[in-house]
Structure formats: C-alpha cells, structure tokens
Amino acid sequence: MKGEERYLLNLLEGTKTRFVIPVYQRNYDWKLEQCKQLFDDLEELVHEGGESHFFGSIVSKADGDIRVIIDGQQRITTSYLLLLALVRQLRDGGITSSDENLADMVNEEYLIDKWHKSEKKLKLKLIKDDQAAFEAIYTGDPDKFVQDSNVTQNYLFFCNRIKASQLDADQLKGAIEKLMIIDIKLDKEDDAQRIFESLNSTGLDLSEGDKIRNFILMGLDPVTQEICYEKYWNGIEKNTDYEVSSFARDWLAAIRRKTPAIKKVYTTFKDYVKSQGFDTVELLAELLKYSDHYRVITKASSGNHKIDAVLRRLNLFDASVMRPYSLNLFECRRQGDVSDNEVVASLLAVESYLFRRWVCKVPTNALNKVFETLHGEVMRGVKEDGCYPEVLKKVLLSKEGSGHFPDDKEFIAAYAERDFYRIGGYRYYLYDRLENGDSLEYVNVVENLRDEVFSVEHIMPQTLSSSWVADLGEDHEAIHERWLNSMANLTLTAYNSKYSNRRFVEKRDMEDGFKDSGFRINKYVSLQDVWGEKQLEERDELMREKFLSLWPMISSDFEWSNDVYDEHELDDDFDFSGRKIAAYTFMGSRFTTKNWAEVICGVLSMVYEMDPVVFHKFVPEGSDFPGRYFSWKQDGYPFKVGEGIYFNAGSSTSTKIEALKIIFEAAGLEGSDLSFELYKVKPEVEDDLPTFPKTDDVFVGGKVEI
Fold first, then answer.
1. Burial class for 23, CB neighbours closer than 10 Å (0-12, 13-18, 19+)
2. What is residue 474's three-state secondary structure?
3. How far apart are the first and last CA of the chain?
4. Longest dimension (CA), the chain
5. pLDDT digits 0-9 by tens, 533-542
6. What pTM value is reported for the model?
7. How many CB atoms lie within 10 A of CB 276?
8. Is the dihedral of CA 389, 395, 396, 398 positive or negative?
C-alpha cells in the first residue's frame, strides 16, 4: 500500500485512467448538505486566497488502466458532478470564462475518454442505478433525468449554485484545483477488505448493512460480483426498502436467538457467517429468502387476506420487536410445516399478547428475549406432535415477570384506569381495530385520521360549558374527572372539531353528527337522548366487552412431556426459585446438571479461571467477617472457589442467582452469557449426568452432597 498527498484533479486527469465503483459499495448517498459544504469551502478558498483544502482520502486498487475505488466514492462522484455542472453552465452561459475552450478542456481532460472504443466514454462508472442517472445528466436532456437519485439532485444543486455564485468559471476551476487528497493505492497483496473496514472516512459513516455488503462481495472477482449483486443483493435491498442493517439484525436474532447491539450487527454477522462456514452464494440465497419473508411481514403481502390483515395491524402497532419470531414463522410456512390458518391463529395470539401488555403498561424490556426464543420453544412442542398455535399459546402463558401474558382481571383493571386519548400514534391501531373488527366492509380509519378527515373526539367535552354542567348535575366535576379520557367517552367523528363543545343533542343531530354517523363505534351513542354518568357506564360496559372480544385471553390444551425445557437467561425478569434445572450454557458451552448447586459451583469456577481478581472485591483482605455471598473463612462455606474464596453452595436458589449477577457485573460479563434450561414439568427420576467443571479441592469438609 502506498499513499501520497496530491491534488484531486491530478488524480482525475488523463485519457486512460477510468474509475469504477464496485457493486459491493453502497449507492451514492451524499445529500445537499454535503454538497453545500463543499461549495462553501471552494468559495472560501477564493475569497481568502487559501493554498489548498483537504478533501479526504481516495483508496483504490489498480486493475490495468482501471482504478477500483475501495473507499472515497462519495467524494470522487461528487467531484465529477461538480465538474459536469461547471461544463453545463459554461455551455449554457450560466457562468463565464476568459478561456472559450474551458468547457471542452474540462470535459475531455476529466470527464470522458474521448478515444475509448466504447460508446460510453465517461471515465467514472457507478453502480447500476447511479450510473443510469449519471449518464442521463451527461446527455443534458432534462426529460431523461432520474429525479429520485442523489446523483441528479446534487448535480442540479451544483448547476444552480454555480449560476447564483459571484465566482467566474476561472475562479471556480482554480478553487477545485486546490482540493487536496490522500491517494492510497493498494498493492495486489494488500487485504482490501481489512483496509476498507478500518478507514475513518470523512464522508458519511458506513451503515452496518454497507459493511455486510462489502464483506460478502468484496472478495469476489468483478464478474462474479456483478452476477451476485444482480441475482441476490439487489433483491435483498429492495425487499428491505434498503434498510439492510435492520433486516440483518432481525435475521441474526431469528437464527441465533440473540439480538446483537445495533452498532455490532456487522461484527456479529461476520463472526456468525465465519463460524458456520457459509459459501458466498449459499449465504446470499439464504439472506434473499429471509428478505422475502421480511417484505411479506413489513408490507403485509403474504397473498392471504386473513394473514395480511393481522400483519397490517401489527405494523400499525409498531410490533417490530416480534420480527425475529415472524421471520422464523414465515420460513416454516414456506416449508409447509405451518398452514395459513395456523399462521393466522398464531399471529392473533401474539397480537392479543402485545396489546394487553400495552394497555396494562407492562415494561417492554423482556420482549426482545421473548421473541428471540419463542419459535424455538414452540418447535419443541411441535416435535411432540403439538399443534403450532396451541404450543405457542402454552409458551406465552408460561411467561413470568415482565414477560407475562395479562389475564382478564389485570386487563380489565388496567382498561378502567387507562387514558385512551393521549396515546400518540397508537390511536391509528386502536381505532382501526375497534371500528373494523374482523369485518370485510373495511373503513380506512388510518389514512383518514392521518389526513385529519376523521378525528378522535370526546363525547363529553374536555372543557365543560355551563349547559354541560347543568346536564351532568351537581356531580359534574367528579363525572368529568372520572370519564373524560376513558374509552366510554371517546369516539370517531367526521365533523369539524370546533363544534366539539356543543351540547350532546346538538352534536348528535348536527350534520355528520352521531345520528348520521356510519361508524359502528357510534351505534350506541346515536341512540341516546342525553349523555351522563348512566350512559358512560353503559357504553363502558359495551367497550369493555369489545376489548375482551377483540383481544381475548388465550388458552391451550397442549401439555409438555417431562423432558422438555424452558429457557431463561441470567438477567431475565424471572423467579428461578422452586424450578428444577436440567442444563446450563455458559459462553457458548453447554453443561448438563442435576441441581443448582452444580450450576453455581461450575460457573463460579469458570469465572474464577477467567478473572480471579474480581472475587476479591467481595472478600477484602484482612476482613474480620464473612461477606453476604463470599467469605475468606472455610467454616460454613463448603465450596472453595479459589484460594481464600469460599461460597455457600447450600444457600437458596435466589441467593445463588444474586451472587452470579453481582459477579457477572463485576467481571464485565453479560447476563445473556449464561442461560438455564428448566424443566417445564418436574421429572420423576433425576438424571445421573456428568458433573460440572472443577478446580482442585472443590468441596471442603464434605458439607455439600452433589
């Protein structure tokens, strides 16, 4: 690898050198903001008389007369667009020069290879869609411009900015000549991928999806790159609306049962692919397959109207947390292992689960883990001849803590206290579901709410007029406070909200009022002569029953066998007390076990081997009394973790879990690094299985029997 400081135009000049953006690169995505900054810098160079301006680095690898751009495509493409705009404005008279041949000189020196045998003489080759836009603007025919391309819009910006600038063409050209770059040329033996990953670009940061594309395609020869891009990657990008980073994260969560941090998607992806030994084509085919599922999920485009109806609602509810599960579900559907009716039943159960939790304001911190592992748990039951939706319901009902499924009692109690007016974007989902139910006569509630054709209105207004005070009676304040933002007092309307403070009879009988309303949700309201506490209580009962009907409590007749396990991680919101353990997994290694004593002893031993110092934080040298979890004294602490460190392996399960949590935090370990497999049903016979990893002299005094 060789790098040298040089002027940008020195890199671009000459008839033979051509620049190619390989297909593994992202699309050109500099916006007007970056182009404006560049032009401002050029004007400043002219006005302040600067000698040079650093424009970043260009990393390339030579292939004959071709320079393959490894890094710097945003800068080099923008430079070509600026030069092209300069030529256009010179020819159109938008800017003047003392040199009448300047336009031809710039065109032939930097933009084209005049003598190249190809009809396409442009010296810069972009990736597919960008190249089409680039060729169109070079023709100069506005009717052929690709308007939805950054290439086109940035070119037009430069044209307008040049025309409006006080600079003449000679000044602008002189400023461009002062743009300085670091020209980095890679040798054949240089690892382009490694260099690409480590560069700190001065342009827009690469997304995790950009890095993944580079990782997959960069090592291929140019012909294979083109084939793979066209056959696979282009489809992946389109299926995901070019949100490859989000898709990759969900895909990793689906197949690994663990969601990577947003900033670690690429590294996690790379490590996983390498560990699995994927062939490039095999990997791309797999990603394309799952991206098809991703499109079906996000666009509600399964081809089955019942499935799509639920998917549409879940998208309205912003249920992206369940996508890892959904990807696995639709892969099962593709393979023919789950019928369309079973998919519908499963999605309806999940919808009820999510909505009830929202009404009950259950913390969402457990949901990632729930949906990472949900499909795998269900498939264990399916392998026992269980029906997929029935097993799914059984699994959801088994969740505890912050992952639990609210029952009718909890749901109705929360319903009674919930403010259903100040719910932000959730109003689209809620009122769409309430109005349409499962009817085939669909009212487009969502679009009309967004366009403000419909509105969510209070029947009893937010501010009571004197007439409303009179109608409600002496308890008007209490009634107003109790019922204002309840479901009983809210509805959909199409009338002008400025009339919302009118008396009830006026609102009922006015044009587009409750009597004229075609909304199903207004049927009861339209029949009332007054609106007071009695009507609010009656409508509340009706709405409560509707909630229970649309988001029902689930049940399941599936029963687990004795050898099926429930999985939980150390940091789950879960009560491990009284649960029988079958196995645990630490840092990717799985160990069968008979009891919790084996678990704590095995894990502490392994953590001690990794970081013995951390344990001494809890047993200070010279301390006169044992700590809560660990002690330097042997008495009463039969398990020897390490020299001078003892733990009471006979303590309660909750104490063992607490001890593991504090050690993990102190050692910088993630709770997800340790998972447990718990018996769903208590086994009748305990297994005689291999023991845990040991240090020397693991048990002292024979006080713990394993």
1. buried
2. coil
3. 61
4. 100
5. 999 999 999 9
6. 0.72
7. 11
8. positive
Q: What Rg value do the Cα atoms of the chain yield, rounded? A: 33
Task: Answer for the pair 216, 46: CB distance below 8 angstroms, yes or no.
Answer: no
Taking residues 180-198, what's their average pLDDT?
75
- In the 8-state DSSP scheme, what is residue 190? S
Name the nearest CA neighbour of 634 among 688, 697, 695.
697
- Mean pLDDT is lowest, of 242-251, 462-471, 635-644, for 635-644
Distance separating alpha carbons of residues 554 and 95, to the nearest angstrom: 73
CA–CA separation, 426 and 315 (whole Å): 11
Instruction: Name 694's Cβ contacts closer than 8 Å, sequence gap at least 6.
Output: 601, 602, 605
| Number of C-beta neighbours around residue 415 at 10 A | 20
Residue type for position 161: R
Strand 455-458 to strand 490-493: parallel, antiparallel, or no bridges (unpaired)? antiparallel
Q: How far is CA 542 from the centre of its chain?
A: 38
> What's the CA gap between 108 and 95, in Å, rounded?
19
CA distance 323 to 341: 19
Taken in order 650, 653, 655, 658, is the CA torsion positive or negative? Answer: positive
The domains of the chain are located at: 2-204, 210-415, 425-550, 565-679
CA–CA separation, 348 vs 550, rounded Å? 9
- 636 pLDDT band (50/70/90 cuts)? low
690: buried, middle or exposed (CB in 10 Å: 19+, 13-18, 0-12)? exposed
CA distance 86 to 80: 10
**Given the structure tokens 């592992």, which residue do they identify?**
373
Separation between Cα atoms, residue 287 and residue 265, nearest integer Å: 14
Q: Element (H or E) spanning 54, and its range?
A: strand 53-63
The beta strand positions in 587-686, using DSSP E, are 589-592, 630-631, 639-642, 645-647, 674-679
Spatial contact of 681 and 561, defined as CB atoms under 8 Å apart: yes
364, exposed or middle or buried, with CB in 10 Å at 0-12, 13-18, 19+?
Answer: middle
User: Please, what is the angle between helix 244-256 and helix 265-276, to 10°?
Assistant: 50
- The label of the residue with tokens 């950054």 reads 150
Whole-number Å distance between alpha carbons of 539 and 524: 7
- Burial category of 139 from C-beta neighbours within 10 Å (exposed 0-12, middle 13-18, buried 19 and up): exposed
Per-residue pLDDT reduced to its tens digit, 308-333: 999 999 999 989 999 999 999 999 99
Cα(683)–Cα(121) distance, integer angstroms: 76
Please classify residue 631 by burial: count the beta carbons closer than 10 Å to its beta carbon, then call 0-12 exposed, 13-18 middle and 19+ buried: buried
